[in-house]
């Protein structure tokens, strides 16, 4: 090493007419490297603080404090009793029910993850107490003082729903800190899901039959009114069947007319004698007048005139009766058609009933499968190393810019 390299070189001063003296910049020696001169202890300390210590704390907590969790699974699918009718089979549109079943499955998956499901099962099984059993595990156990929103968030951690849209299969995995609790939660999820599907089917049946049921009620009310009016008309006119009464009245009138004809002939025969008996003639004439008066009365009853009683004429009674009878027949026909339409609507609604078919009953775990300690520890190592490496690169980049 030459003396010139060991001592910083200083440029010779030159006089400038303006009086300014120029000095050459100092040059660092060749043996001095600022990057090599910095101590690497900062990165090592950061590795210990940000990688090793979190890793050790995580491993200690997972294997000494974290409570074991048991998982119970159940599987089911939404099925439909949707046998296509003959028209659908001929038309080739019997596959339309598959999309409805798939939409019901999507709706059911959303319902299982909803707050409504959480609130129902919490009231039924006391989820807060079951999920807050470990006293020394604040990370994986639930805080019983949490709100329903906190319980819903925790539910989504402890209950996992897997849905296969193609096959229409739904699998539910419920976790708890006791095997029986996990099985109970899984079974309750299936029961509540089945109840919701049944409710949806009931709503669909109600919607399908609502109009038919309304038409049936209107036809039934119309028929009842027609029958009531006909009964009131019979009571008011004191007749059961005016047609039968008219036939009887016509028989009476025919008999009177026959008697009148006989008496007229007899009267004519008495008058045709050379020396008729005046008393007998007057008696025959009196008999003819009485029969004619009775015939007039009977015709008056049949034709609608006023009779000796205050009742209407048979023609008017029969006309009113026939009108009410026609209205009753029309009401009966409408009621029959409405009843048939309602029966068809009910059959159609039953044909499209949805229900849950379980292909896997809620299981009982024999060993704890959660928390997945190796996976969580590996994830902690990965995250810690990633953050430490990013921080080291950022610090090195800042140093290079100085």
Describe what this molecule looks like in 3D:
There is one protein chain. With 402 residues, the protein is of the alpha+beta class. It folds into three domains: 40-66 and 371-402, no CATH class; 69-210 and 357-370, Bacterial polysaccharide co-polymerase-like (2-Layer Sandwich), CATH 3.30.1890; 215-347. It is 65% helix and 8% strand. The chain has 13 helices and four strands. It has helices spanning 3-6, 34-37, 41-64, 86-91, 97-112, 115-125, 127-131, 148-158, 179-237, 242-271, 278-303, 314-351, 373-401; strands spanning 70-80, 159-164, 169-176, 354-360. It is rod-shaped. The chain starts with a helix and ends with a helix.
SSE layout and pairing:
Elements: H1 3-6, H2 34-37, H3 41-64, E1 70-80, H4 86-91, H5 97-112, H6 115-125, H7 127-131, H8 148-158, E2 159-164, E3 169-176, H9 179-237, H10 242-271, H11 278-303, H12 314-351, E4 354-360, H13 373-401
Antiparallel strand pairs: 1-3, 1-4, 2-3
Helix pairs in contact: 3-13, 5-9, 6-9, 9-12, 10-11, 10-12
Brief summary of the model shown:
65% of the residues lie in helices and 8% in strands. The chain has 402 residues and is α+β, with helices and mostly antiparallel strands. The longest helix is centred in the middle third of the chain and has 59 residues, at 179-237.
Low-confidence stretches: 1-15, 28-39, 83-98, 304-311
Strand element count:
4
Proper CATH architecture of the largest domain: 2-Layer Sandwich
Q: Sheet with the most strands?
A: 4 strands, antiparallel
**Ends apart, CA distance between termini:** 29 Å
What structural category do the secondary elements indicate?
A: alpha+beta
| Total DSSP helices | 13
